[in-house]
């Protein structure tokens, strides 16, 4: 089975969005370079960011996100983001009315069930967990192997926290990867058990 990785772009003070879910400048680094990150024609990053992010994206077999993220993105119109094969949505509610059952989205109750389903779908590939409340719950459950952060030079002051509402201490090793891109610092930490 592949490892479980928590990931997001984050402000220097630890927020992934403002209180109103606006990510502000957190994704500016994805359009601030000259190297295409995918085939969209939109995402262009520095060479250093490409060399770090593209191999990571290629390893992801499934992504776990919360229902709130699913709702504010309109379910990515039924197409998982960044070429991901499957999205597992942690929710207490059923799929939206009229949702295409053939879309590669799986609605489950609870983070343990989400990780189990995502691992099944990903096989030997990586499971990515979106940071925020769901990511924090997966970390608190001891199911995260690695934490990745794309740290952007902005201070929000308040907003949606990278680790959600995690209250207990969790030790990380490293960082074992530090990559400077254009207006972003990519960090990778292994979770210590």
From TrEMBL:
GO biological process, one term: riboflavin biosynthetic process
Domain (Bacterial bifunctional deaminase-reductase C-terminal) ranges: 3-170
Molecular function per GO: 5-amino-6-(5-phosphoribosylamino)uracil reductase activity
Domain of life: Bacteria
Database matches in SUPFAM superfamilies: Dihydrofolate reductase-like
Protein name per UniProt: Bacterial bifunctional deaminase-reductase C-terminal domain-containing protein
